[in-house]
């Protein structure tokens, strides 16, 4: 009974190890490095264009960004880091423009702001936070323009100001 399970498992394990070795060997051989005065990037070139996952390192060899490219254009997830490795930002690109949520963090790990994008324009809610973590303001965008009520808060979470926008133009402001 034991050998009936063990043999297929052993074959499967050998196959996984072999495929991992082949994949790693191929990817290591295709890694390119591009450097300038402030950073180096490592990833795969298809012809002369960035393709797939690229990692950016500063001059001290600290990983400062991981981003996905398609045909030399940012396309997909991107994550950036402070020099100490702490998360700086996460976002998504589509054809070189922000698309989806983009969040930036303070060095203490608290969220600084969170914006939503559609094809490179703010679209949906945006939130701005204090370094201590409390919500300072909340805005709503449609195709890159503030629209509707925009709120500003104090540390207690009370609304201290409301601005009303229509297609990007301020039409009213209420201070409380």
In summary, what is this structure?
With 176 residues, the chain is α+β, with helices and mostly antiparallel strands. 16% of the residues lie in helices and 59% in strands.
Helicity level: 10-25%
Which stretches of 5+ consecutive residues score pLDDT under 50? 1-27
**Rg, Cα atoms, Å:** 23 Å
Indicate the structural class. Answer: alpha+beta
Strand percent estimate: over 45%
Number of domains: 2
What are the secondary-structure elements, in order, as H or E? Answer: HEEEEEEEEEEEEEEEE
Q: What's the tally of helices?
A: 1
What's the number of extended β-strand segments? 16
Provide a descriptive summary of the structure in words.
By secondary structure, the chain is α+β, with helices and mostly antiparallel strands. 16% of the residues lie in helices and 59% in strands. The radius of gyration is 23 Å and the shape is elongated. The chain starts with a helix and ends with a strand. It has 2 domains: 29-94, no CATH class; 119-176, no CATH class. The chain contains 1 helix and 16 strands.
Topology summary:
Blueprint: H1 2-29, E1 31-35, E2 39-46, E3 49-58, E4 63-70, E5 73-81, E6 87-94, E7 97-98, E8 100-105, E9 111-118, E10 121-122, E11 124-129, E12 135-142, E13 145-146, E14 148-153, E15 159-166, E16 169-175
Antiparallel strand pairs: 1-2, 2-3, 3-4, 4-5, 5-6, 6-7, 6-8, 8-9, 9-10, 9-11, 11-12, 12-13, 12-14, 14-15, 15-16
């Amino acid at each position: 009974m034991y050998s009936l399970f063990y043999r297929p498992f052993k074959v499967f394990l050998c196959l996984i190890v072999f495929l991992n070795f082949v994949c790693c060997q191929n990817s290591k051989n295709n890694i390119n490095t591009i450097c300038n005065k402030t950073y180096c990037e490592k990833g795969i070139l298809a012809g002369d264009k960035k393709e797939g996952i690229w990692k950016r390192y500063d001059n001290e060899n600290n990983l400062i960004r991981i981003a996905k490219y398609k045909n030399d254009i940012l396309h997909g997830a991107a994550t950036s880091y402070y020099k100490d490795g702490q998360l700086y930002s996460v976002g998504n690109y589509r054809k070189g423009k922000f698309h989806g949520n983009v969040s930036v963090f303070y060095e203490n790990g608290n969220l600084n702001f969170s914006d939503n994008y559609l094809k490179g324009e703010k679209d949906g809610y945006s939130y701005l936070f204090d370094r201590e973590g409390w919500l300072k303001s909340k805005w709503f965008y449609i195709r890159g323009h503030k629209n509707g009520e925009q709120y500003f808060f104090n540390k207690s979470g009370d609304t201290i100001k409301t601005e009303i926008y229509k297609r990007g133009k301020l039409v009213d402001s209420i201070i409380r």
